[in-house]
Write a structure and sequence with these properties.
Length: 363
């Protein structure tokens, strides 16, 4: 196992970070919130132009055909910038579901459009309180009936990959009669969520079966990369503020308690990054290890991001809780990511269940 990224992956991450730093300053995020925008459309088109949307989509379908670690460095950059784009919904979840379970015809129809950014997709898996991945939506004779809630980025999505009965996937175009989309209150204003009601909406089943766990593990690894990027951004923000802020004639960073806080966040972030790398490696090279690796990456990613977001607020003091400061962008995203794809209990069960000889049930 190589414990570092190769030169091409490092270059890919640098290109993504430079683009996001240029196009997504904090004032841009404030503008998006103040204007009630659901996404940063110019940034999305630029990501498509740079080829980032197609990083793991096969070359025959207009993508780059790269691997999970390549996708991870982009997710890490997106997390660091707190970008308001449907990358997780459209590329990490929906496009991967079509790659895993779609027919050749379905892949040929939708993957090029997703890689180019022409079509935006979402993945509808939850049905309110209850199982994280609920398959209560009914699919019969090409018609979809039921509800999914919450569904990230559903307001701007053209299609949805929906988890239906027996753990299968159906693909549905959202601009048709029989579909109602209702926006929900969302703590993270830069990643809106919706309820989708299907009333005999026309849909098409993806023929591949038994792909849900593979998709969940893939998404968990990429979510961990996003959390690592965001946690590191919080660490740097807190460090810079502590160096600039003067308390009793000396920098705030000169106090031992502040040094300990920053050191703890740095250690947690590096540990989470190592787990994310291991998850990316397992995605590509060791499918038997993926379930445990994905759970470990997800749990350590959640933990490090929560610590970083909270300590960033604490180090900034009272000003950190204002809209004019930048801490809240990451705190809001952290609270959303903490429950997206399932909370800690869900992933702790999956981690225990991945151990040899485990007797944990229901994970």
């Amino acid at each position: 196992m190589n414990f570092d990224l190769n030169d091409e992956q490092k270059m890919l991450g640098e290109q993504a970070s430079a683009l996001l730093a240029d196009m997504t300053p904090f004032d841009r995020l404030r503008y998006l919130i103040d204007s009630d925008a659901q996404w940063d459309e110019p940034l999305w088109h630029k990501l498509a132009e740079m080829g980032f949307l197609g990083v793991t989509i096969p070359e025959e379908h207009g993508g780059l055909g790269l691997g999970a670690l390549d996708l991870g460095v982009i997710m890490e950059a997106l997390g660091g910038a707190n970008a308001a784009v449907p990358f997780m919904s459209s590329i990490v979840l929906a496009a991967e579901a079509i790659c895993l379970a779609g027919s050749e015809e379905q892949q040929a129809k939708w993957l090029p459009r997703l890689a180019s950014g022409e079509t935006i997709a979402t993945f509808a898996y939850a049905e309110g309180p209850g199982p994280v991945f609920a398959d209560g939506c009914g699919f019969k004779d090409g018609k979809l009936k039921g509800s999914k809630s919450p569904v990230a980025d559903a307001g701007i999505a053209d299609i949805a990959v929906v988890l239906v009965e027996s753990g299968n996937f159906a693909i549905v175009e959202l601009d048709q009669e029989g579909i109602t989309r209702t926006q929900l209150d969302s703590f993270d204003q830069l990643r809106p969520h919706f309820r989708i009601d299907f009333n005999d909406a026309t849909a098409e089943l993806l023929p591949g079966t038994g792909k849900l766990n593979r998709l969940i593990d893939h998404a968990a690894v990429q979510s961990a990369f996003e959390a690592v990027g965001a946690a590191e951004a919080c660490l740097h923000m807190a460090r810079d503020y502590a160096n600039e802020r003067q308390i009793f004639g000396r920098p705030l960073s000169g106090y031992q308690a502040i040094k300990h806080k920053l050191a703890d966040v740095a250690v947690a972030t590096e540990l989470a990054r190592s787990n994310a790398y291991y998850g990316g490696w397992a995605s590509e090279s060791s499918p038997d290890d993926l379930s445990g690796a994905a759970a470990a990456a997800r749990l350590s990613g959640i933990k490090c991001f929560e610590m970083a977001a909270r300590e960033n607020l604490q180090i900034h003091g009272g000003i950190g809780y204002t809209f004019e400061a930048n801490c809240h962008f990451y705190y809001r995203r952290e609270r959303m990511l903490a429950v997206h794809l399932g909370n800690r209990g869900f992933w702790a069960d999956r981690l225990l269940n991945a151990r040899p000889g485990s007797q944990v049930q229901g994970a």
